[in-house]
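Appendix B, record 7
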Amino acid sequence: MNKETKPSFAPCVGTGDGAYDALLLQNQLCFPLYAVSKEVVRLYKPFLDEIGLTYTQYIAMMVLWEKRSLTVKELGEHLYLDSGTLTPLLKKMEAQKLVSRQRNAADERSVIVSVTDAGEALRARAAKIPEQIGRCLPLTKEEASTLYDLLYKVLHAIQ
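Structure tokens (predicted):
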């Protein structure tokens, strides 16, 4: 499907033209969500390369800049990631001296992640990234707000 073709999306039903219409890629809501997500993350890459972060490290740092310190489980809840994904990510970030990890004294099974001074200093360099990405997307502020609301509506409904 080229960029100019607008699919006749009918969620959960075919177009009536055939028994397998529901399996046409153009009839899938998941595909444009997947493709847009991949492409938006790709847009971040040059900006994140400048500050030495991957996209997943960047979103983890955004939570840590806001919360300062939280458990791996809590961080995973914010990012919709499990500890199996977060642990190697956090180990790399700790090696970069952006975060520290310590066992929770109250619960040895729990690990607390905190932003370090070096991680906090990175925040100033990252502050321009949202605006830079905003200039790359062909959406008005109103459209972006509507899309944001719709995406979170879906995300919360399927949790």
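Remarks on this record: The first strand starts at residue 69 and ends at 71. The chain has a mean pLDDT of 91.
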